[in-house]
Amino acid sequence: MSHPAHLQHHFSDSQQQHESSKLGMWLFLVTEVLMFGGLFCAYAILRAWYPEMFFHAHKVLDVMMGSVNTVVLITSSLTMALSIHAIQNNNQKAGVKYLTVTLILASVFLIIKYFEYSHKIHLGQLPGKFYTFTGIEGNNPHLFFSMYFLMTGLHGIHVVGGMAVIYWMMRRMKRGEFSSEYYTPVEIVGLFWHLVDLIWIFLFPLFYLIG
Amino acid sequence: MSNFAERNFLNTPAGWKSWLVTLDHKRIGLMYLYAIMTFLAVGGLIALAIRLELLNPGSDFVTADIYNRLFTLHGAIMIFLFIIPSIPAALGNIMLPVMIGAKDVALPRLNLLSWYIFCIGAFIALYSILKGGVDTGWTFYTPYSSSTETAVIAMTFGAFILGFSSIFTGINFIVTIHKLRMPGLTWFKLPLFVWGLYATAIIQVLATPVVAITLALLIMERLWGVGIFDPAMGGDPVLFQHFFWFYSHPVVYVMILPGMGIISEVIAHFSKKRIFGYRAIAFSSLGIAFLGFLVWGHHMFTSGQSEYAAMIFSMITFFVAIPSGIKIFNWLATLYNGKITLETPMLYALIFLFTFGIGGLTGIFLGAIAVDIHLHDTYFIVAHFHYTMMGGTVMAFLGGLHYWWPKIFGRMYNETHGKISAFLIFVGFNMTFIPQFFLGSQGMPRRYYMYADRFHTLNIVSTVGSWILAAGFFLMLYYLVRSIKHGKPAGANPWGIHGLEWTTPSPVPPENFLEEPKLEHGPYDYDKFMPEKTV
Questions:
Q1: Which of A10, A49, A147 is facing B104, going by the closest CB pair?
Q2: Which residue of A175, B59, B203, B512 has the fewest CB atoms within a 10 Å radius of its CB?
Q3: Could you give the angle at which helices B108-130 and B25-53 cross, rounded to 10 degrees?
Q4: Taking 50 as the threshold, does the pLDDT of residue A1 lie above it?
Q5: Distance between alpha carbon B172 and the CA centroid of its chain, in Å?
């Protein structure tokens, strides 16, 4: 029986290994959803308590920057999918190219986020006890920024983590480790990246498009 | 075949360095086993110190501050470092692949990662001791936990990291059970321990991330004052309790379900009888896992949640008794007319039926709102919790430890010592905790280092009980350690029972089976034929 190099000893064939890795990743994504779920739950409760404050506070966010970032991330999900499609067809060159574009788009997202953050830090629109801004009506506006920074911050950490594994996949693809026979790692990194994208698609309307 | 496998997972490959990078589930499980036994000893010694302080009503050995740190440390160590990883990560890790005829868990590198994450988390959590300890109780309730001067960040950050180790074990087990069962081993031919681990893993995967974000928010609260749990800043301290119990209630089923799996194995095999109600036991594990997610509010009957919510939580809490009762009655029916032998594992299974029965039934008292208002935060809850966790999980763990010990080390412990130790632990345990039911119902509050004189007699009984309990554990430590070198070789099947793990040599070879295992019959087919004892 032939035994490909990528097949670990405890699996009987490549398909079993592929399915196991994918199931493991899906379960990990479930844990991610539940972890963010806690924050979404806290958001829902605080917004139900202070609906007017949330409405007034959201106006300080820049809808334009948020929209651009949404488009950027959705496009990066597309290039990620295109990269997997390419490697499934043994086109390593295109695969690497699409991963590079994905990385560039992720960087654009972070750069835009950097400008948003630094603007808010400058104005004192900060979480909890660091909040010094005075121009927002309603009770406890610092809670809006607590939620904003916690949720977009945790999402941002995931973007950085996603970029690290995408970069790793790019290196391995360049070394020729992947082919139509074996592309499982790229695919499960893709799954992760789509989740990061998806969480942003929920964050964007919840913060930028209130009311 | 010789009775002791000379080439086994303990010595192949050789050298301590090979253990540090091992991907072998048995070695990772064994390292977990050593670690959790150490933490059991540490947590147990702290418990002895607590009981010693409570021997007399006044202040004897420690100050109030030290006492608060002791019970917090006892709780945190026992929950996060011992009981959550105890059965799944140690015994489950070692036995699961062998029981389903696989060569390893599906994701061995993730398994090793989970072990190292466990070490890092344990290290950070224990670092809090050097920083002066934590005095919040293991539940870390806000707003006290966000304002106390003690080392809450180190302890909660440790627990946060430990959560990932638990999640990774859970993911690994689900994938392993789905994808790595040997050909022909369908779901309803699985040993019931595997069903227990499966239900456990589902809870680990679904509940643990919520406590991760909760503890992360608590750390943010302390570091940056984000205010989400702080009423002075418009936040909600009760939200912390909801989040915390959304994890911490289901997690008591992470602790008990694998234990129930062990009890199913031991009772069937030491009755030499087909287990009664296989499917009912299997599905009741999933039922408990499901209901476990819907009852967290019963920890908060006095926290100011809406009374309708409390009523619904109370009702669903009663429902948990149904799948638990299904298990108990099926085990009893399995015992009926069985060829029962009373080796040490079976003694622990029978102790479990008794002590967990009390633990489960007193849980129904506490699930009733009006009764709970009276008993809340008294010693009654301490006794109930210890009857489920120690009388339940720990007894099952000890049963499983004795049951699989010959498979892991290839040698038998001294059976007489085992029986004496089980007897001491049974007597000591009940003597320690039965008085606490009475103390609680008479109004002795928990978490105080002094108490009214009228509670003195029962507290003496309880403390003396803790000494008997300790004697049982010290005897166990002695004969188990001794058996590793001096025990009689066990052979492949020392109990003369069914189950794939008993068809491979003891200690288990590195690749689990010397030749491809064959599935000739189900795990409980004693009506078809009776395997032979090898010791």
A1: A10
A2: A175
A3: 20
A4: no
A5: 18
Q: Do B107 and A42 touch (CB under 8 A)?
A: no
Tens digit of each residue's pLDDT (9 = 90 or more) over B17-54: 999 999 999 999 999 999 999 999 999 999 999 999 99
**Do A49 and B103 lie within an 8 Å CB cutoff?**
no
Q: Residue A20: its chain B contacts at CB < 8 A? A: 106-107, 175, 178-180
Residue B484, domain member (yes or no): yes
CB of A142 less than 8 A from some CB of B: yes
Residue contact A35–B212, C-beta within 8 A: yes
What's the pLDDT at B359?
Answer: 96
For residues B472-492, give the mean pLDDT.
96
- What would the pLDDT profile of B437-466 be if each residue is shown by its tens digit? 999 999 999 999 999 999 999 999 999 999
By Cβ distance, the residue of B167, B179, B225 closest to A129 is: B225
- In percent, the amount of chain B with pLDDT more than 70 equals 100
Q: Is residue B8 part of a domain?
A: no
Domain-located, residue B509: no
Q: Which domains does chain A have, with CATH numbers?
A: 17-208 (1.20.120.80)
- What's the mean pLDDT in A144-151? 96
Q: Within 10 A of B346 (CB to CB), how many other CB atoms are there?
A: 22
CATH code of B119's domain: 1.20.210.10
Residues in chain B: 535
In a domain, B374, yes or no: yes
What's phi and psi for B489, nearest 5 deg? Answer: -55, 135
| B462-481 per-position pLDDT tens digit | 999 999 999 999 999 999 99
Q: Which residues in chain A have Cβ-Cβ distances shorter than 8 Å to B102?
A: 10
- Asked if pLDDT for residue A22 goes beyond 80, the answer is yes
Residue of B nearest to A29 (CA): B205
**How many residues appear in chain A?**
211
ipTM associated with this complex: 0.94
Tell me how many residue pairs between chain A and chain B have CB atoms under 8 A apart: 116
Which residues have a Cβ under 8 Å from the Cβ of B199 and sit 6 or more positions away?
B253, B257, B285, B286, B288, B289
- For B183, the domain range is 17-503
Confidence at A2, pLDDT banded by 50, 70, 90: low
By a Cβ cutoff of 8 Å, what residues of chain B touch chain A? 102-108, 110, 167, 170-172, 174-175, 178-180, 205-210, 212-214, 217, 220-221, 224-228, 230, 233-236, 239, 243
Q: Which of A11, A41, A140 sits opposite B234 (nearest CB)?
A: A140
Q: How far is CA B457 from CA B33, B245, B437, B464, in A?
A: 38, 34, 14, 11
pLDDT score of B373 more than 60: yes
β-bridge mates for residue B489, sequence order: B411
State the total domains in chain B. 1
Chain B contact present for A51, CB below 8 A: no
Shortest distance between the Cα of B50 and any Cα of chain A, in A, equals 35
Residue B522 has pLDDT above 90, yes or no: no
Residue that is written with structure tokens 């129930």 in the block: B260
Q: Do B213 and A28 touch (CB under 8 A)?
A: no
Q: Which residue of A has its CA nearest to B101?
A: A10
How far apart are alpha carbons B143 and B182 in whole angstroms?
51
Contacts of A205 (CB under 8 A, 6+ apart): none
Nearest-by-CA chain B residue for A129: B225
